[in-house]
């Protein structure tokens, strides 16, 4: 099997991070010996790595986030249960349907004789 430049591109993140196996390192380095343009690019990446970003979390932030997520899930579950109950029992659907038909009728009545879309 021929190793293409695309394969080497896929391997570069692990290679540059120092997490590649010995076989992968050997494969990438052999390819870099044959492709001087890619070798220069890799050297440039090694010369200017991305800076480490400091992550400063409060000691309680993980627990607070977990509690907020649990609360949101409870609220969503409550809303979903209420909506499913309405669908099963039909509660509220008649009022909504009558209101929607009334609003639509009023819109049609006001728009008679006028164009709703486009220039006058």
Question: Which labels suit this protein?
Answer:
single chain, mainly alpha, 72% helix, 120 residues, elongated
Protein architecture, described:
- This protein has 120 residues and is an all-alpha fold.
- Among the domains are: 5-47, no CATH class; 78-113.
- The chain is built from five helices and no strands.
- It has helices spanning 5-17, 22-34, 36-47, 61-89, 93-111.
- Helix 1 crosses helix 2.
- The longest helix is centred in the middle third of the chain and has 29 residues, at 61-89.
- It starts with a helix and ends in a 9-residue tail after the last helix.
- The relative contact order is 0.05.
- Residues 115-120 have low confidence and may be disordered.
Helix content: over 70%
Indicate the radius of gyration in whole angstroms.
Answer: 31 Å
List segments where confidence is low: pLDDT < 50 over at least 5 consecutive residues.
Answer: 115-120
The mean pLDDT is 77
> Describe the biggest sheet?
none
The number of helical elements comes to: 5
Between the first and last Cα atoms, what is the distance in angstroms?
Answer: 68 Å
Rough outline: elongated
């Amino acid at each position: 099997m021929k190793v293409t430049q695309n394969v080497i591109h896929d391997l570069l993140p692990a290679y540059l991070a120092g997490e590649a196996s010995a076989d992968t390192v050997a494969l990438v380095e052999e390819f870099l010996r044959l492709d001087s343009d890619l070798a220069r690019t890799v050297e440039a990446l090694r010369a200017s790595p991305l800076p480490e970003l400091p992550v400063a979390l409060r000691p309680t932030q993980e627990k607070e986030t977990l509690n907020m997520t649990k609360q949101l899930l409870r609220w969503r579950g409550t809303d979903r249960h209420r909506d499913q109950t309405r669908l099963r029992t039909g509660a509220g659907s008649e009022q909504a349907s009558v209101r929607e038909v009334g609003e639509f009728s009023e819109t049609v009545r006001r728009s008679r004789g006028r164009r709703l879309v486009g220039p006058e």
